[in-house]
Amino acid sequence: MKRSRSGSRIDACAACSKYSLVFDSRSLESIRVSANTGCRYCQLIRDVINSYTPGLSGAQKITAMGYGQPMQLSWDTEEGRPVRITMYGVPKDSLRVQNEAEYRPPLVTDVPEILCDTGSQKAIARTRAFMRECKNDEGCSPSKSYLPNRVLDLGHPIRLYKTRNEQGRYVCLSHCWGTEHGLLKTTNDTLLSRKRGILESELPKTFLDAVIFTRRLRIRYLWIDSLCIIQDDDHDWQREASNMQSVYRHSYLTLAASKSGGPGEGLFSIAPEEFKLRKIPFKSNRGIRNMVSVRHSITHLGSRDQFPLLKRGWVFQERVLSGRVLHFGPQELMWECMCYTSCECGNVGTWDADHEFNKFWFPGLFTESNTIPWQHMWYSIVENYTTLQLTFEKDIFPALSGIAQQMMKVRNAKYLAGLWDDSLIEDLLWHRRREVRWGAAVGTPPCARPGVWRAPTWSWASVKGAVEFQYDERAERAHRFTPHIAGFDVQIDHRSKDTTGQLKKAMLIVFGSLASARIRHDHGETMNGTDAPIAIEVNGKLVNRLESFIDYDLWSASENHITDGETIHCLTVGTWQDPEKPYGEIYYLILRSCGTSDEDAFERVGLLVLSSAQDCFTDVVKRKITII
Predict the structure, then answer these.
(1) Residues 6 or more apart from 361 whose CB is under 8 A from it?
(2) CA–CA separation, 150 vs 579, rounded Å?
(3) Angle subtended by helix axes 374-385 and 401-411, to nearest 10
(4) Which of 131, 68, 133, 132 has the alpha carbon at shortest distance from 102?
(5) Cβ atoms < 10 Å from Cβ of 173
(6) Is 446 helix (H, G, I), strand (E, B) or coil?
(7) Which residues, 6+ apart, have CB-to-CB distance to 184 below 8 Å?
(8) Greatest Cα pair distance in the chain
(9) Which of 66, 137, 331, 547 could form a cystine bridge with 71, CB 3.0-4.6 A?
């Protein structure tokens, strides 16, 4: 134990005092020993563990995180079941804290209890409280709304109602289709019967729960995609898919079945007793007896494994476009609007919030108060969207079309197969996302191109998996990018009138500098000295110190196969110049000939980055080419 400068006793062991209750893998036995010798924090940790897993072996490892947040305590039972506990109101009086202002543990009286039943009448009251807290400063709830083309009228019986350009409030349901087993759909064969009436016994559990909750909110109309769009009518599907921006943007509220992986799993949940607060006694160094509140940690939106809905590509635009979203989680309700986020336990945004998504990133989509450049906002949207899953590969553009339409309204630019005409040259500098492991960036394993054509190769939508753009920390220095493409023209044939939806074909015609090289399977060396996924050979010499990204698995046998040593072409896109460095970075599209009679037709296969000091290309020619 230690003493302060004044000589008063500070009852914290060396580990707790030194690390501010942040430690990894201390044994329970060491905590018990420290508790027995007087460390009040180890006594607290011991008592919490005894409260949930009495008799736990002393050999079990305990992890604690406590600086600046409600304290998190985690361990495994002897059967291997993980236990994660949140502790509120742990005093810091004898701990070394780096920033006193940031550490304000909530008083026990400030810690809210959760309802433990997201389908109860109290859940309706909590939802209304969320709504009252919403100031509507960002247009979270439109004052006037026109009903979508079709809605479910929740009278008795429920029926599919064809609207007549009338105003009214309605609620949307955001849900996982799952394997579609048990999913209720409207088709041309069932359209007439749906208009006559739908038995509540026909509804899968998620749909029925949404009906119940919407009725309790005293809202008459509910919009569910599988019932309000004719699923086997391509014309109807194309038209309604192009209206997603309006449907979700003008809804009174969107109910998100976030914890459910399919229509049979339901909207509501009842949390077990361990998620209720428990009080553990704790004596301060002044001898004052406090009560620390603890409970099983509640899962928030960052834990995507617990929220199957949030893995889905279509749901991304539903979250972005909806002014107000009520998430139904496994233990509690969570709220998102353009003003704020909240939850029943009050802890959203602390430990496991969804760091891949935040509605506050996109306020400029709906107001004139945008402070983020459109170009960089779009990059953030695409980078988030491409981490998600689509059941049908062809939906890559429709599932994002609502956001694209909204951005067209405020950006005043033309949308070009996922890129924009006011930033197209820089937009070409995308590549497949790199994973970060232990602080080092590594390439994700290459995969095949999509099974069906859905986008031209110059678009990020032509590859499977997450992508990212070359703007990162240079976002505030965009004027230092020098384009080397002299001019371009884009020709796109869309499948419908919706210029943000599915494509038939597209091509990019550019006039720029083109150089030839050979592609080598042998790994080259990156600018950082690590292995590059490919090497290039110019005039018989391998080019080292490059950064390269391949769009797909080039080497496996397929129609897109590239042989080792095959001729490729490098189109100079532009140069980033860092004022703090003597040399810039030159970006090239790696192209291959399409092998057709048109010698000017190419397809993209990757992205290449070289230092401007290398100047390895000697046969550069300026020409007009077409990238398909």
Answers:
(1) 372, 377, 380
(2) 56
(3) 180
(4) 68
(5) 26
(6) coil
(7) 198, 202, 203, 204, 207, 226, 227, 263
(8) 90
(9) 66
Alpha helices by DSSP H, 358-473? 374-385, 401-411, 424-427
**Distant-in-sequence, close-in-space partners of 557: CB < 8 Å, separation ≥ 6:** none
| Residue recorded with tokens 């590549």 | 431
Phi/psi-derived region of residue 97, left when phi > 0, alpha when psi is between -120 and 50, beta in every other case: beta
By three-state DSSP, how is residue 623 classified?
strand
- Length of the chain equals 628
Q: Strands 481-483, 278-283: parallel, antiparallel or unpaired by DSSP? A: unpaired
Q: What pLDDT, on a 0 to 100 scale, did the predictor assign at position 553?
A: 85
Q: Nearest Cα to 378, choosing from 468, 301, 456, 463?
A: 468
The gap between the terminal CA atoms of the chain, to the nearest Å, is 72
CA dihedral 67, 69, 71, 74 (to 10 degrees): -90
C-beta of residue 152 within 8 angstroms of C-beta of residue 227: yes
Task: Give the integer Cα–Cα distance in Å for 73 and 87.
Answer: 8
**In the structure encoding, which two tokens stand for residue 346, read together?**
């009050």
Confidence band of 69 (pLDDT split at 50, 70, 90): low
Q: How far apart are CA 257 and CA 214, in angstroms?
A: 13
The single residue listed with the structure tokens 């802890």 is 347
Question: What is the rounded distance in angstroms from the CA atom of residue 103 to the CA atom of residue 378?
Answer: 35
Strand partners, 223: 172
3-state secondary structure labels for all residues of 539-576: CCEEECCCEEEECCCCCCCCCCCCCCCCEEEEEEEEEE
Domain boundaries, the chain: 2-105, 125-270+301-365, 374-627
Residue 403 and residue 417: Cα distance in Å, rounded? 13
The kind and range of the H/E element at 622 are strand 621-627
> Is the Cβ–Cβ distance between 345 and 112 less than 8 Å?
yes
DSSP 8-state class, residue 476: G
Nearest Cα residue to 509 out of 598, 606, 618? 598
Q: pLDDT tens-digit profile of 517-550?
A: 999 876 655 555 455 678 888 888 888 778 889 9
The amino acid sitting at 465 is G
User: Is 247 in contact with 317 (CB distance < 8 Å)?
Assistant: no
Q: Rounded distance, CA 325 to CA 309, Å?
A: 13
Is residue 329 scored above 50 in pLDDT? yes
Name residues whose C-beta falls within 8 Å of residue 120's C-beta, 6 or more positions apart in sequence.
none
The answer to whether 167 and 364 have CB atoms below 8 angstroms apart is: no
Q: Which residues contact 433 (CB under 8 A, 6 or more apart)?
A: 383, 386, 387, 444, 465, 466, 467, 468
Which residue(s) pair with 567 in the sheet? 518
At 187-206, the pLDDT tens digits run 999 999 999 999 999 999 99
483 token code pair: 């384009």
d(CA 324, CA 448): 38
Q: Helix (H, G, I), strand (E, B), or coil: what is residue 400? A: helix
Paired strand residues for 255:
173, 326
Residue 339: both structure tokens together:
């003003």
User: Which amino acid, one-letter code, is at 219?
Assistant: I
Backbone angles phi, psi at 411, to 5 degrees: -90, -25
Residue 147 pLDDT exceeds 70: yes
Helical packing angle, 313-321 and 401-411, nearest 10°:
40
Distance CA 109, CA 123 (A): 21
